[in-house]
Write a structure and sequence with these properties.
The chain is an alpha+beta fold and about 100 residues long. The chain has a domain of about 70 residues: 2-Layer Sandwich (Nucleotidyltransferase, domain 5), CATH 3.30.420.10. It contains four helices and two strands.
Length: about 100
């Protein structure tokens, strides 16, 4: 659920920024395959998140989703760990950094 929620939030931000295309690099092969329609979404908790992600993608238009193993993306893993540490310390659970 956390990974799908992150995808939906990222796509929402991309829409807010007026993105005409997005390239998703995900360490979840499950989400990549489900977004492409190659694997079914079986978990009832994920169905609404998947539908929300697909709706965002349809509005954005052009998109790609590719699997990148966590071991090959240390920067994303570091950002995730930073967010977890911040939340555990009582800080904000959501921080949005907009590109300059």
């Amino acid at each position: 659920m956390a990974e799908y929620t992150a995808v939906v939030r990222a796509l929402s931000l991309a829409e807010d920024l007026g993105a005409g295309s997005v390239d998703l690099l995900l360490d979840s092969k499950l989400i990549v395959e489900q977004l492409h329609g190659r694997w079914r979404v079986k978990d009832a908790k994920l169905i609404p998140l998947h539908a929300d992600a697909k709706a965002h993608l349809a509005r954005i238009g052009r998109w790609t989703a590719n699997h990148v193993p966590r071991a090959q993306n240390k920067q994303a893993d570091a950002l995730c760990n930073e967010a977890i540490d911040r939340a555990l310390a009582g800080g904000p659970r959501v921080v949005v950094v907009r590109p300059k």
